[in-house]
Specification:
Elements: H1 5-14, E1 18-23, E2 27-32, E3 35-40, E4 49-52, H2 55-61, E5 67-69, E6 80-83, H3 91-107, H4 111-116
Antiparallel strand pairs: 1-2, 2-3, 3-4, 4-6, 5-6
Length: 120
């Protein structure tokens, strides 16, 4: 059975120093150091997950069934993918991409903030 929104909430919340806010209606937004790494619930169905990816992953995943460049973010040149429909990614791959998003965002935090968060 594919990961549910609740499964995704638990996964994102369990990442070290992750914080959660509800923004843009009912979207669950997960952040590290105040910077977004995952968004649950945007889109027409409310059953989406949006995450940051590398340039290569953006090129590969953008054309995959159930995935698309994230509306709004990709139009601004940001490399974010949204899983919006089946089949999307297998659960293990989805978790790996969310973790990679978290890692990419955390790596861009200032050294001082990473130290405050115990990440050095």
């Amino acid at each position: 059975m594919p990961m549910t929104r609740e499964d995704l909430r638990h996964f994102c919340a369990a990442l070290p120093n992750a914080t959660h806010v509800v923004q843009w209606g009912d979207a669950d937004v997960y952040k590290i150091g105040g910077k977004v790494f995952a968004i649950l619930g945007m889109g027409e169905t409310g059953n989406t997950i949006t995450f940051k990816v590398s340039n290569l992953a953006f090129e590969i995943l953008g054309d995959s069934p159930g995935l698309r460049p994230a509306p709004y973010m990709a139009s601004r040149g940001l490399k974010w993918i949204q899983q919006y429909d089946a089949p999307g990614l297998p659960d293990d791959s989805l978790r790996a991409h969310i973790r990679a998003s978290y890692d990419m965002v955390a790596a861009k935090l200032t050294r001082k903030l990473r130290a405050e968060l115990g990440m050095l």
